[in-house]
């Protein structure tokens, strides 16, 4: 399958740029098993890279121009700009993510004296909550690192992706998505403390179970959603709590401390947002212990609790995600289900026995179509490797 994608990319590259690519690259999408909306609150997350993502073919140029083409956005044609031009392209252009990463890398002291050509294709559904934008950012990062022989650590690529999202695109995301894509390993989840950047790889041994991704097929753009509003609300909660607590983020306190101090928070809605961030951080810590001990039933229950908190306290689910999750939770063989990603559409995941996957798709699919009016999509998630380059021969 991958070799076919690389061959198609190679043909597309030759067609658009009349030359042969020098390198091939892959940058995965990600799912977050648990720990939602905790990353920008200094908490813990448990994401994993998956085997669908963004593929790229690239080559250096002798002049200063960058030339880009995406099979996913073929209507934009070939995008061309000077390597050091930081002006935004038209709103919504995927080329802005490339420009954002280049800008971030320049701010870290990297210099670019010539351009490059890049052709990409991705099989992550746009707006699905599986981090198609972060996948693209990290793809650009590894392409630039290879083509310019940059002697930089992987964490700089991860941070550059986040800076591009925050400062150039204008979405106040945490670092979880980029970190998972940058550091992912096959059959391993990443237990990351977003406050310290200390992480641990946790083996994911599903046994007779698999993770099924359930896509609402409702498109959403983070910059147009209430994502930034949630960031502001949790920051407001920290500000209120700082009247008595010496904290910089909600990830620094537990539920017991929060309950004692929540009277300091002026607005009830802000208190509920903070309650989710604190309780979700605790669930993530517990989830790691359960995975290590292979207690999948208990892990599944945590997924259910996570979704309820995201629905009631954080209010980022909606009828589409709730229909998928709440229907899935009643299907035989399902240990637990929850939304994953930012919410407001996108995807949910279900931990289900392999023998019940077909039943899950049938029952949940019908309920979703009946209630929402259009179809959901389902696919089994395989946990794979993070960003990496492919030798030219491997791509053929």
Could you explain how this protein is built, in words?
With 396 residues, this protein is an alpha+beta fold. It is 40% helix and 22% strand. The protein contains eleven helices and twelve strands. Strands 1, 2, 3, 4, 5, 6, 7 and 12 form an eight-stranded mixed beta sheet that branches. The protein has a four-stranded antiparallel beta sheet with strand order 9-10-8-11. It is globular, with a radius of gyration of 21 Å. The model has no long low-confidence stretch (mean pLDDT 94).
Question: Would you summarize the structure shown here?
Answer:
The chain is α+β, with helices and mostly antiparallel strands.
- β-strand amount: 15-25%
pLDDT averaged residue by residue = 94
Q: Largest beta sheet, briefly?
A: 8 strands, mixed
Which of globular, elongated, flat, extended, rod-shaped describes the shape? globular
Portion of residues in helices?
40-55%
Order of helices and strands: HEEEEHEHHHEEEHHHHHEEHEE
What's the number of helices?
11
Distance between the termini: 11 Å
- Stretches where pLDDT is under 50 for at least 5 consecutive residues are none
Number of distinct beta strands: 12
Helix- and strand-based class? Answer: alpha+beta
Radius of gyration: 21 Å
């Amino acid at each position: 399958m991958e070799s076919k994608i690389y061959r198609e990319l190679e043909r597309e590259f030759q067609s658009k740029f009349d030359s042969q690519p020098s390198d091939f690259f892959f940058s995965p999408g990600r799912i977050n098993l648990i720990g939602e909306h905790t990353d920008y609150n200094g908490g813990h997350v448990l994401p994993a890279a998956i085997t669908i993502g963004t593929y790229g073919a690239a080559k250096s140029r002798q002049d200063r121009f960058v030339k880009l083409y995406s099979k996913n956005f073929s209507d934009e044609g070939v995008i061309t700009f000077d390597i050091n031009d930081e002006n935004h392209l038209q709103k919504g252009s995927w080329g802005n993510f490339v420009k954002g990463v280049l800008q971030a890398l320049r701010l870290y002291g990297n210099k670019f004296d010539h351009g490059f050509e890049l052709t990409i294709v991705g099989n992550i559904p746009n707006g699905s909550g599986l981090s198609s934008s972060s996948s693209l950012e990290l793809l650009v990062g590894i392409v630039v690192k290879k083509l310019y022989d940059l002697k930089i650590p992987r964490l700089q690529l991860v941070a550059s992706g986040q800076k591009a999202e925050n400062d150039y695109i204008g979405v106040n995301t945490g670092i979880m998505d980029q970190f998972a894509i940058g550091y992912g390993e096959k059959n391993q989840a990443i237990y990351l403390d977003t406050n310290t950047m200390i992480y641990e790889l946790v083996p994911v041994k599903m046994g007779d179970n698999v993770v099924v991704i359930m896509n609402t097929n409702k498109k959403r753009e983070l910059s147009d959603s209430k994502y930034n509003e949630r960031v502001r609300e949790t920051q407001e909660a920290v500000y209120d709590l700082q009247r008595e607590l010496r904290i910089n983020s909600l990830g620094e306190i537990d539920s017991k401390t929060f309950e004692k101090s929540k009277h300091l928070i002026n607005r009830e809605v802000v208190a509920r947002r903070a309650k989710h961030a604190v309780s979700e951080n605790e669930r993530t810590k517990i989830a790691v212990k359960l995975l290590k001990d292979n207690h999948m039933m208990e892990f599944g229950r945590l997924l259910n609790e996570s979704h309820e908190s995201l629905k009631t306290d954080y209010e980022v689910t909606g009828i589409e995600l709730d229909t998928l999750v709440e229907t899935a939770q009643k299907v035989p063989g399902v240990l637990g289900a929850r939304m994953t990603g930012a919410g407001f559409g996108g995807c949910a995941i279900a931990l289900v026995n392999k023998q019940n996957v077909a039943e899950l798709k049938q029952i949940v699919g019908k309920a979703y179509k009946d209630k929402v009016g259009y179809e959901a999509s389902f696919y089994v998630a395989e946990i794979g490797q993070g960003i990496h380059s492919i030798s030219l021969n491997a791509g053929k």
